[in-house]
Amino acid sequence: MNVSSAKDPPAVPRWFRWFGVYTRTIEGLAGVSMAIILAVMIAQVVARYLFSGSLIWAEELCRYLLLWQTFLLLGVAYQRGEFVMLDVLPYMLGPRARLILKCVTAVPILIFLVVIVDQGFDYASRFDRQKIPALDFIWSSLTGNNAGVSVTWVYVSVPVGAALLALHVTADLVVSVLRHRALDDRMPPVTDIEGQL
């Protein structure tokens, strides 16, 4: 049995530190995309009300950026506990039962996310020949040629977001199990029935 202070942080593997870098990268991308959305929308308002013109590509570009931003941040929102959930039952249970409940509820979630990833990539590939009009318009205005970027890149945001969410759910389970084991190693044996769950 490992004897350490009760104030020691629960064990988290060293390889798990990259997760923080990944999270900060995703948050940075979200910040940049939000800044682009804000700048494009301000330019759209200025063009419309001051110059009586319009940036016909602005709304489409912002829509696609917002879509990608939403799906990229699914995992980060899960990690922070920002999903809506009913957590009355888990708090009524002891640590071991709470961990078991977390594992049991994660299984159908992970199965659903695997199906979304599999079917999402299949669905996105069906739009390979359809091009994004906004990017074609912007690129042809600048270079005279079409950009040729497929709508697949818009639809692929769904399976990418589902894969990232599955990664977060799996990582949460791993950390929960490791923390539970670390706490079990530190705690003295419990003899009463209340501490068994």
From TrEMBL:
Keywords: Cell inner membrane, Cell membrane, Membrane, Transmembrane, Transmembrane helix, Transport. The chain crosses the membrane at residues 28-49, 61-79, 99-117. Residues 37-176 form the Tripartite ATP-independent periplasmic transporters DctQ component domain. GO terms for cellular component: plasma membrane. The keyword Amino-acid biosynthesis does not apply. It is a multi-pass membrane protein. GO terms for molecular function: transmembrane transporter activity. Its main location: membrane. It is found in: Cell inner membrane. GO terms for biological process: C4-dicarboxylate transport. PANTHER family: 2,3-DIKETO-L-GULONATE TRAP TRANSPORTER SMALL PERMEASE PROTEIN YIAM. Part of the tripartite ATP-independent periplasmic (TRAP) transport system. Belongs to the TRAP transporter small permease family. The complex comprises the extracytoplasmic solute receptor protein and the two transmembrane proteins. This is TRAP transporter small permease protein.
